[in-house]
Amino acid sequence: TPCDDKDIELALGRYLQVLEGTDNLQKALDIFTRLRTRAAGGQADTPCDDKDIELGIAAILISMMEWRKFDELQLEKQLFSGFETSLCLSLRNFHEVTVVKGTMPEHTALLGKAFYWAALAVEGSGGINASCLSQLAH
Questions:
Q1: How far apart are CA 57 and CA 129, in angstroms?
Q2: For 89-134, how does the pLDDT look when each residue is reduced to its tens digit (9 = 90+)?
Q3: What contacts 91, CB < 8 A, 6 or more positions away?
Q4: What's the Cα-to-Cα distance from 127 to each of 31, 84, 94, 99, 122, rounded to whole Å?
Q5: Does the CA dihedral 74-90-67-107 come out positive or negative?
Q6: Which of 41, 74, 94, 121 is the most buried (most CB within 10 A)?
Q7: Which of 50, 119, 130, 64 is nearest to 89 (CA)?
Q8: CA atoms lying within 13 Å on the CB side of residue 81
């Protein structure tokens, strides 16, 4: 049952994501989607200005391997401060490359995008964030 406390709902959504499994990921996505709708003034499927919510949805979609839905978020067009958006975009592209079977030309493009966004994440973090450096190293 939603409690209308953003911090509690974010924590629950993240916890469910860590637990993994289809049901838990769908429950986490439902929580973040509800938060997004509330933050967008009640309009469903509308981006909001809350970085925690938007990147939370993105992370869940990466875990679910929902590449099309992730791309529909259009995170690259949102102007969130910090390196997290670039890191998330890199993770999305890299993860798709690692789970596909065979190599096709579009996979090379995905790998290029993963490098591009990882480099921006490292730069945005001032070169000191371990997650950004690790992503670029992959």
A1: 22
A2: 999 999 999 987 777 777 889 999 999 999 999 999 999 999 999 9
A3: 62, 114, 135
A4: 33, 13, 20, 28, 5
A5: positive
A6: 121
A7: 119
A8: 0
